[in-house]
Amino acid sequence: xxxxxxxxxxxxxxxxxxxxxxxxxxxxxxxxxxxxxxxxxxxxxxxxxxxxxxxxxxxxxxxxxxxxxxxxxxxxxxxxxxxxxxxxxxxxxxxxxxxxxxxxxxxxxxxxxxxxxxxxxxxxxxxxxxxxxxxxxxxxxxxxxxxxxxxxxxxxxxxxxxxxxxxxxxxxxxxxxxxxxxxxxxxxxxxxxxxxxxxxxxxxxxxxxxxxxxxxxxxxxxxxxxxxxxxxxxxxxxxxxxxxxxxxxxxxxxxxxxxxxxxxxxxxxxxxxxxxxxxxxxxxxxxxxxxxxxxxxxxxxxxxxxxxxxxxxxxxxxxxxxxxxxxxxxxxxxxxxxxxxxxxxxxxxxxxxxxxxxxxxxxxxxxxxxxxxxxxxxxxxxxxxxxxxxxxxxxxxxxxxxxxxxxxxxxxxxxxxxxxxxxxxxxxxxxxxxxxxxxxxxxxxxxxxxx
Length: 451
Ligand code: ATP
Ligand code: MG
Known about the structure:
binds adenosine-5'-triphosphate
């Protein structure tokens, strides 16, 4: 027995009332059987799109993909996608079917779907239709292709990443034949658009099974981000590390909170290491400058993946700063917040905690205390009067103009000097003393810089 929400039940009943067959199908059946709340409810039916339109002519209907047999019916302000049973024609581009053909049996429709756990349909009067062993694979926690894996990945290369995403989201395994086929066919990802790859990648990273995916399918990740290839197996011979760069990366990703953009940052944070490797006189590996190179690489990668700007900017800053030596004074902490922003500093703590979790015990003991102390300092500084950027000063450009200055580099230098002294707490954060101090500073400026 599966509980359908009212809007989905209404769609099924209405189609049956008109003499058609209809089932909820795909993700909602899978999630219900797992005891999870489905995101949305999809319906499949033997009614043709025109017939669906007619059956729901009194409802608000959106012609989402009429060619492919899909219309969206709004019931109680909830969308239900209704798709006619179909099989896909040939796939000449490894991504999109050249045509679709409507068919009459639900089993034929289920056969075109990607994985067995996604290929089940349910109707309260007919029960579960599970032609490919989806329920068994759910119980075994396995992602398995419907049919011949090689064929299915050739039809649509995106399914390679979908397999990893579902396995990661539910912490499932990828069944052996499907896993071999994924590795063999990873080149098919070349036919998938950057936007789709990035969306799937973020989905994989956000899942609780991400560690097994990163460790089990490194070559797939190196196919979508070639910069990953040199990190795989790259040794780090020093007391701080117990893993090669990729293995360390995988553990660091898994140790980070699942929210964006942290896991993405952890995926990228050490990619500059292989190119910045050197060996010291003591025989230890060093990676001088890898955060800066990594930041440049992160930018290139995220531009290629067509990332939104906010995600890109944040990732570049956090990769660049990931190895930061934390300030130990309030003034230093204020300057750091001024330089990268409060939110990025907050995220940087998560980045460092995740990074550290994937280091050797030696490094963990050495650095954990430093992070704790820095976090206390960060909170103290946030509780005190803000002094992070010139905007926090109790005086502004207009005040300095009243003292005879013009806007320009000299004015900026005066404001920055005042900020520095306020951060150092050598100057009280009050208008009068601040203006008096501004007069002093202006008096020291060479006469030709400004009036
Ligand atoms: P999610 O919770 O991520 O939405 P979902 O299973 O609903 O999971 P969708 O991408 O919404 O996934 O697709 C709905 C259904 O359509 C899937 O369950 C699957 O049966 C089928 N499907 C989607 N994409 C593909 C594909 N690329 N190849 C084959 N079948 C697919
Ligand atoms: Mg869905």
